[in-house]
Amino acid sequence: MTSLRARAVSGGILWAVVIIVLGLAGISSYMTAQTQARFTDLVQARHSQAVVAVSNNGASAVNLVRAIGDPVYQRPFSGQYWQVEGSEGQLYRSPSLVDASLPRPNTTQGGRVAREYRGPNGDPVFGIAEWLTLPDGSLWHIQVASSLRSLEADTQELRQTLLTAFAIIAFVGVLGALAQVAVVLQPLNTLRKEVSTRWEHENGLSVDSYPIEVAPLVTDINSLMDRNREIMSRSRRQAADLAHAIKTPSAIMRNELDTLRSKGVAVQDSIDALDRLDAQLKRSFARMRADGTDGAVGVVTELDTALGRMKRAFEALSRNSDKTFSATFDEGLRVRMDQSDFEEVMGNLLDNALKWAASQVRLSASQADQGTVMITISDDGPGIPKEERSRAMDSGQRLDTSKPGTGLGLAIASDLVHAYGGKIILSQDEDLGGLAVQLSLPAAAAQRPD
Questions:
Q1: Measuring CA to CA, which residue among 96, 94, 66 is closest to residue 78?
Q2: pLDDT digits (tens, 9 = 90+) for 126-165
Q3: CA-to-CA distance for 348 and 356, rounded, in angstroms?
Q4: pLDDT score for 28
Q5: Radius of gyration of the chain (CA)
Q6: Distance between CA atoms of 341 and 290, rounded to whole angstroms?
Q7: Taking the model in full, what pTM does it have?
Q8: Phi, psi for 399 (deg, rounded to 5)
Q9: Does domain 299-450 have CATH number 1.10.10.10?
Q10: CATH architecture observed for domain 4-153
Q11: Residues in Cβ contact with 350 at an 8 Å cutoff, skipping those fewer than 6 apart
């Protein structure tokens, strides 16, 4: 499943990379051209300086060196050179040439040549050469050359600066893309949280609080959830109506069998079969009710109320059986389960525990973690061997026929608990020694103040 956030971020980053690469290429090309133009202008300015020096000072090496007094010409092989040659063989050079000479191009009088060639130390240079005729009629060839390595260094520095600048721009752009995606997707995140909250509360989603692009989706979700709740509620009512419809003929059959038994007719097998039939029907209707439950939509059981009722009822039942029953539970616990289903599960489990206990039954409930409530029912009875606990959760598996029952109490409880996203775990109680039944149920959010 592809995330919208991942799509938006990857698309934004890809587009930003394309823009940055194109921008970097364009700006780099422009800035490189400007750097080359400045370099050429500088060489031309130095050539003009040399021409003026020769025009003003004539054939005097000392005067030329003093007139062309740029310090870059004083350092040997500095990359900046000038050379003046007379038509009669005179040769004057900048101190930077030491004993080397610049090759003279083939130029005609009055012509100027700009070219690239190898300098005195093998470095590539860019030079300008020109013949100059002085007022006294003497003819001089003037050359100025500048190493291209300085141009390359300037170009490299420029590119490095541009890369650094664009890297910062890219980083800021990615952060901006992430921030923009977070802002754009915020309504969807809010919608997800509100939908999750609505499974626990009856409040509808406020369409007006969402952008106009998301509002139609919110309206559809409201309609869908209302329709879903209506269908599940109708399914529960139909299951309840069908159960009531079957109870009447079942009760008539049971009365007839009781009458026959009172007359001495051997009908115990039929009565046991009817008991099993009633239990199976009860489990089937519990499943139907669980499958069509609207427990996911707004139903919550307050354990203070439900367990308080169970505590009072089973304290009375335990006294009648000469047994003890104790219940401890944290205040304010709430589970996402229909109260009638919860009380049916607890009734089955507590009834089993009281039936098999030797002398005492304990009930405890606490918050296990942020999303789970753990309820434990334990007794001091014989318990269930570890290898037979899974069978006890199956339909109709009576592990001991010494006491009355259908063997479906745990199965019905398991069906209902699983329908609400919970689970039942059977183990041996370390304190009492009998069976410990642990119910893990999804916790409901704390009740909001009005």
A1: 96
A2: 999 988 888 877 888 889 999 998 788 888 888 888 888 8
A3: 12
A4: 81
A5: 49
A6: 8
A7: 0.48
A8: -85, -20
A9: no
A10: 2-Layer Sandwich (3.30)
A11: 310, 314, 361, 363, 377
